[in-house]
Design a protein that fits this description.
The complex is a heterodimer of chains A (163) and B (437).
Chain A: H1 2-37, H2 44-65, H3 81-116, H4 128-160
Helix pairs in contact in A: 1-2, 2-4, 3-4
Chain B: H1 3-19, H2 24-55, H3 63-76, H4 79-86, H5 88-91, H6 97-112, H7 118-134, H8 138-150, H9 159-168, H10 172-200, H11 210-213, H12 217-225, H13 228-242, H14 248-265, H15 271-304, H16 307-317, H17 322-339, H18 342-359, H19 364-380, H20 386-394, H21 401-424, H22 427-436
The chains are: A mainly alpha (163), B mainly alpha (437).
């Protein structure tokens, strides 16, 4: 199960980072078409924003997978093992509260967008808002599950006495 | 609940949670969502989701991953090493020559990149062992690398300025232009400091052995050859932004293309480099953006609770002179810089500070330069000093984090001096953008 999740996360990370390469390619295309052929596109701008937003959103759970979100561990590292474990568990609970509330809020936002099939309201009128709002809700939920998995992993280590 | 109590509880709570080691993104996000729930009820939580969603929709934000990726490709090629070697031309027999050479290379790398991290790691791998081998004073060598490597966000392009520009809605092009001269002044001040200290006490920086110095001029010129293309990339990226030909995002994307072409010409470009660079970009942006999401949630709730007008009245109540008000703000930024990441600081404080500053008749571009200088200090100041963390990762094991912080303080003082200069003489920053019209 754990191995499957790790592989899935890696695959999604690879796909998400590929989005940046796509942005580079289409931006180069846009500049080439505008200055070379005097025919700028109307879709590069909107698509770049959407792809970047998708990658940023996915970046959250991908970074959280390795517990690499920026934190001040200065104090924590100076504590004894027991207090450190206690505080880590407290932090996990607080993270669960935040992600729980955020998953709920972004989920409600996504459902409303789905109801109206919200579109971007530009010349293209793509349904990007629906897609991004759903993605945000999914990523929040995903991080919630990751936090639970981290917590379970830590507790198991505590009871078995290993570090 | 009164706004005084909300302010105390929100920011006090933030400090406590930060010191407990809860990631910054979750600290600010938690405070934002929980206060939102208590103050505005379940429906109010929508505000948090909406703010996060709309934050992602800015076109200029797309330039952040482009600049990160450009830097990461450049770091993976031999450009940095060549650059460092080529800068030997300038070092010669100057006192502290190798440290000055490092600083020149760091400044040029600062113009190629808009982030810190990679640059410090590279200098830590390339320049630090050379300085230590020559018998340079450990603290001077370490301080040079941390301070020089931090110039990545001071010399434009700079993602600090991009986020500042997005937060307070000023032209990123103007911010880049305004930051150029203060950035270069900072770099020159560092070099003068190294020069003077090594002149006074030559033991700090023993000269290199003679055989190292007697390379022919042609040889030295040869070292420069590989640098021509990377330099052209910098010039074209910044040139198109300053000239207003391309948006910051397009210029950054073309910078990535240019960097790829330059490294392909150098026969160093591989698919693995592109793939790894994109992967690093994703992680870096994932961290940055989620800190931003949390901070934007927290400040959004604080806004609705009437925070900004409370802070404005608080400042007004002290009846400080305008310059003293700015000084107090700088002090607050300095303190926050010791414990927080710059993105969090920018999104939390700037929406409150900048309207106050502009109402006092100051320029928001000038304040952006001050913010950027202040964040230079934040990279070096303990206990949360990102520059120190980056160097610790690659420095020899006998160099501790405490050594690194102990090495940084002379440079923090120099940063303070340049900050004071820009504070007292705003034209240092503002004459160049004015020239641009």
């Amino acid at each position: 199960m754990r191995a499957l999740i790790v592989r899935l996360t890696r695959a999604i990370a690879a796909a998400a980072s590929f989005l940046f390469i796509v942005i580079v390619a289409i931006s180069a295309l846009e500049v080439g078409l505008r200055y070379g052929f005097d025919s700028p596109t109307i879709w590069v701008h909107e698509l770049s924003i959407a792809l970047a937003a998708a990658a940023f959103t996915l970046g959250g759970p991908i970074v959280h997978a390795g517990r690499e979100h920026i934190a001040i561990t200065y104090l924590l590292e100076r504590l004894g093992t027991r207090s450190r474990r206690g505080i880590s568990a407290l932090n996990a609970l607080l993270t669960l509260v935040f992600l729980g509330l955020l998953t709920w809020a972004s989920g409600a936002q996504a459902l409303r967008a789905l109801d109206d099939m919200e579109t971007s309201g530009t010349a293209l009128n793509w349904p990007t808002p629906v897609a991004l709002k759903c993605l945000l809700a999914l990523c929040c939920g995903w991080m919630l599950l990751q936090t639970l998995a981290h917590l379970a992993h830590d507790l198991r280590n505590t009871t078995s006495g290993s570090e | 609940m009164s706004v005084e109590w909300i302010t105390v509880l929100m920011f006090g709570g933030m400090l406590v949670l930060l010191f407990l080691g809860l990631p910054l993104a979750f600290v600010t996000g938690l405070i934002g969502t929980v206060f939102c729930l208590f103050l505005f009820g379940v429906d109010g939580l929508q505000l948090v989701a909406t703010r996060i969603y709309s934050f992602m929709g800015e076109y200029a934000l797309v330039s952040v991953p482009m600049f990160v990726m450009m830097a990461s490709i450049m770091e993976r090629c031999g450009v940095a090493k060549d650059l460092f070697d080529a800068m030997r031309v300038w070092a010669g027999r100057l006192p502290g020559g190798l440290a000055i050479q490092t600083m020149v290379a760091a400044t040029i790398m600062g113009a190629m990149t808009g982030i810190i991290g990679g640059e410090i790691v590279l200098l830590g791998l390339i320049a630090l062992p050379q300085m230590l081998r020559l018998g340079y004073d450990k603290r001077l060598a370490i301080g040079t690398i941390c301070a020089g490597g931090s110039l990545g966000t001071m010399i434009p392009p700079s993602i600090v300025l991009i986020i500042y520009g997005l937060t307070v809605n000023v032209s990123i092009g103007d911010l880049f232009t305004a930051n150029l001269v203060p950035g270069l002044i900072l770099s020159v001040v560092y070099m003068l400091y190294i020069l003077v200290r090594c002149q006074i006490d030559p033991k700090l920086a023993p000269p290199p052995p003679d055989d190292d110095q007697d390379r022919s001029f042609v040889h030295k010129l040869g070292l420069m050859r590989g640098l021509v293309l990377p330099m052209l990339v910098i010039a074209s990226v910044l040139g198109t932004i300053y000239a207003g030909i391309a948006s910051v995002t397009e210029a950054a994307a073309m910078g990535v293309v240019g960097t790829m072409i330059a490294s392909a010409v150098r026969r160093e470009l591989t698919w693995a480099i592109v793939r790894d660079s994109a992967a690093v970009t994703l992680r870096t942006c994932g961290m940055l953006l989620w800190v931003s999401f949390g901070a934007t949630a927290m400040i959004g709730v604080y806004n609705l609770a009437g925070g900004p007008s409370f802070i404005r009245e608080l400042f007004a109540g002290f009846a400080l002179s305008p310059i003293a008000t700015v000084l107090v703000m700088m002090a607050i930024l300095g303190i926050l810089g010791c414990i927080m990441d710059w993105v969090g600081i920018c999104l939390l404080t700037m929406p409150i500070f900048v309207p106050i500053v502009t109402s006092l008749g100051y320029d928001s571009v000038w304040f952006g330069v001050l913010f950027c200088l202040n964040m230079q200090i934040s990279y070096l100041s303990p206990p949360f000093g990102p520059a120190a963390f980056y160097l610790k990762g690659v420095a020899p094991p006998e160099i501790s984090l405490n050594d690194i912080y102990a090495s940084a303080w002379p440079f923090i003082i120099l940063q303070g001096i340049v900050l004071a200069l820009v504070l007292l003489v705003p034209d240092v920053a503002l004459w160049l953008p004015r020239l641009n019209g």
